[in-house]
Amino acid sequence: MDGSDGNFERAFLNEQKLRLAAEQLLKDKSSVLVAINNELQKKVADLEHQQMLFVQTEKMATLGTLSAGVAHEINTPLAYAMSNVESLQNASPLLVALLKLNEQYLNNEIKESRFKHEIDILNLQYPYAWIYNNLQGQINDSVEGLKRIKQIVHDLLNFAHPTSSQDKQLADVTTGANNALRLLSSKLKLCEIKTRFEPLPLIWCNLSSINQIFVNLLMNAWQACELDLEKGCIIEVNIFELNTNICIEIKDNGCGMNEDTIAHMFDPFYTTKEVGKGTGMGMTLVYAMVSDHGGKIEVNSILGTGTTIRCLLPLKV
């Protein structure tokens, strides 16, 4: 082997050694990157879980505030449904006896004269004129009351159900407005509620978050008006298309906010409410949820006059 062959072989071996070292370095770096990526994914999952727990905590606080009113909303239809059912229970002997008599007469087990006589006796024991006048109405009222209770329970479960921010679907945001207005109906009963819902396209959104946005904004509007109910509480809920966005607009004629309050209203735990009337996280959550949908919030408020809050959600994210 001459000198040139030896140099070539050494160069080849050096190149191979360098290539193997580079491959090992790349492999090591890749392993480190995979480990870092896995750790980041875990941290993101942990953050999402903490956010979901945080949202649930705020929901439970809201439900605690609403509990007395919701109990009243359930008890009222439940009371008249129970009263109507008790009336039917008291009348059940008459209904059963009439059915038996009718069956006996149709089967020729008793004669017509006996049939009429027995009916007259029953009518004396259990006057059944109310059947003609009240039975259908009582049944209809009971069904409507039970439907109302079912709707309230459905709205409560729908609001309280835990969801991830990733759980998105094509939905109509007016559904969230209607859900929130039903849920808060007892709280808002002293307010004049004006709504303007324009026909809108469906958007890709988390409907649970949309519900929460409406609930928090409406609760804030109510609490702003609560300070001076004598002038009359007026809350407007408007949903319409604005350029490339769907605009959720909540207006109230409440106490309004000064510039300092507006500047800090989305800060965590910032509140101007009395102790026990707010967690200071309601508007923070609204901001986070609107941002999660790629949207933005506009606030216009005049102290002593009222507040208008607009949440702009893009039609396409």
List the helices and strands and how they pair.
Elements: H1 3-106, H2 112-125, H3 129-160, E1 169-171, H4 173-183, E2 191-197, E3 203-205, H5 207-226, E4 233-242, E5 245-252, H6 259-264, H7 282-292, E6 296-302, E7 306-314
Parallel strand pairs: 2-4
Antiparallel strand pairs: 1-3, 4-5, 5-7, 6-7
Helix pairs in contact: 1-2, 1-3, 3-4, 4-5, 5-7
Q: What would the principal axes of the Cα set say about the shape?
A: elongated
Q: List the quaternary state of the chains.
A: single chain
Largest sheet: 5 strands, mixed
Mean pLDDT equals 81
Helix content: 55-70%
Describe the fold and architecture.
- Helix content is 62%, strand content 15%.
- The protein has 317 residues and is an alpha+beta fold.
- It has two domains: 1-162, no CATH class; 163-314, Histidine kinase-like ATPase, C-terminal domain (Heat Shock Protein 90, 2-Layer Sandwich).
- The chain has a five-stranded mixed sheet with strand order 2-4-5-7-6, covered by helices on one side. Strands 1-3 form a two-stranded antiparallel ribbon.
- The model has no long low-confidence stretch (mean pLDDT 81).
Concise summary:
This protein has helices at residues 3-106, 112-125, 129-160, 173-183, 207-226, 259-264, 282-292, and strands at 169-171, 191-197, 203-205, 233-242, 245-252, 296-302, 306-314. With 317 residues, the chain is α+β, with helices and mostly antiparallel strands. Strands 2-4-5-7-6 form a five-stranded mixed sheet, with helices on one face. The protein has a two-stranded antiparallel ribbon with strand order 1-3.
